[in-house]
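Hi R.,

Here's the chain you asked about this morning:
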Amino acid sequence: MEMETDMAVTGNRFSDVRFIEGLLTRKTTPQKRFSVLAWLIHLLNGILLAELYAAIFKRLLPGPDWLKGVIFGEAFILSVWWLTPLADRYHPMIKSGTLPKLASWTSFLQNIVRHFFFGLTLGLLYRN
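And the predicted structure, written out as tokens:
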């Protein structure tokens, strides 16, 4: 929900699901038959991160539960953001212009907000 909202507000159409779809198909345009699989992978990735948070990181982070979740969400995106120039260089949908470049301030801010809400949700769901 947040991803669709920030795309509408910023006008930057970078979609995490389309990104995954491009990795799966290696095509320059979206492929409908892979859309459900891309959503499923995105969901499973979120579940995996949530389980890592609950099993390991929650007890290591400072503050109330909501803040622990936010720190985790932001730390995750900051730890992988250095890979974005590689995505811009090699991802078929980014190279073709179907998806906007990931290594931009707008995409960075979108991902900061997306992972803020992801982390906040984790913190509220995984309370002591």
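The two ends are 26 Å apart (CA to CA).

Let me know if you need anything else.
M.
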